[in-house]
Amino acid sequence: MRTSEKPAGRAPVNAERPGAQSGLSGPASRKLPVSPRERKPALAALALLLILGGALATTLLVLRSGDRVSAIEITQQIGAGQRMTTAAMREVPIANTGVHYVAWADRERVAQNFARVTLLPGTLLTGEMVVSASRELGPGKAIVGLSLKPGQLPITLDVGDRVQVIYVPARGGEGGTQSRILAQSALLHKMRTVSGGAPSGQVAIIVDAKDAPVISAYASSGEIAVAELPGAR
Q1: What percentage of the chain's residues is helix, strand, coil (to nearest 5)?
Q2: Which domains does the chain carry?
Q3: Which residues have C-beta within 8 Å of that of residue 204, sequence separation ≥ 6?
Q4: Which of 104, 150, 102 is nearest to 126 (CA)?
Q5: Mind telling me which residue stretches traverse the membrane in this protein (predicted)?
């Protein structure tokens, strides 16, 4: 008799890996726990206040930009203690930002006063920059005229600058052989210029009255030079 053998069936998949579960169970199938988003209400409120504050400031600037006033702008350098002049002023319309600039309508009254500090071109004038009396042109001061040659003064000088007045002895001079300072910080009061704005050498300076005779004597013999003091205003 012919006996037929029953073919062996395929072994179950899990038979090769006893105890294995169906489906993926590795690290890729596991999701990390997600922490709930931390809320910071204080920071959110601060950001909202900053946004609102910026919008309010912008609105105020826009509203005030149409509210303009006529102020005084300085067009020429005016030294500390020098008289204000209308020739050194011009009218300029500006936005009313709350700063107390001197109004253009008061220019004639301003011209009767003096600069408290050195005023440079482009300065918008405020009341604190002007005084009614000058310490430079008051008692104890003198105005001395100098006729200087090229090399005895810088070409960068301008009215209102502070200068040193220096004795520079000539050969055979009677004032000694060593140079010395005659005035530490004199004010350049007036100056003639040539084409291009360079100084011609004809200047007037304000010095202490006690120094005026010596400076005038050395100036007459051509033994005077002036040095600019850019840091002194």
Answers
A1: 25, 30, 45
A2: 68-131 (3.90.1210.10), 141-228 (no CATH)
A3: 143, 144, 145, 146, 188, 189, 190, 191
A4: 102
A5: 42-63
Type of residue numbered 230: P
Q: What pLDDT is recorded for position 183?
A: 95
For the segment 90-105, what is each residue's pLDDT rounded down to a tens digit?
999 988 777 889 999 9
| Amino acid, res. 142 | A
CA distance 93 to 96: 9
First and final C-alpha spacing in the chain: 134
Q: Does residue 50 come out as left (phi exceeding 0), alpha (psi in the -120 to 50 range) or beta? A: alpha
Q: How far apart are CA 141 and CA 212, in angstroms?
A: 9
Span 189-208, pLDDT tens digits:
988 888 777 788 899 999 99
At 11-69, the pLDDT tens digits run 454 444 444 444 545 555 555 555 555 556 777 777 777 777 777 777 666 555 557 78
**Are 89 and 110 within 8 A, CB to CB?**
yes
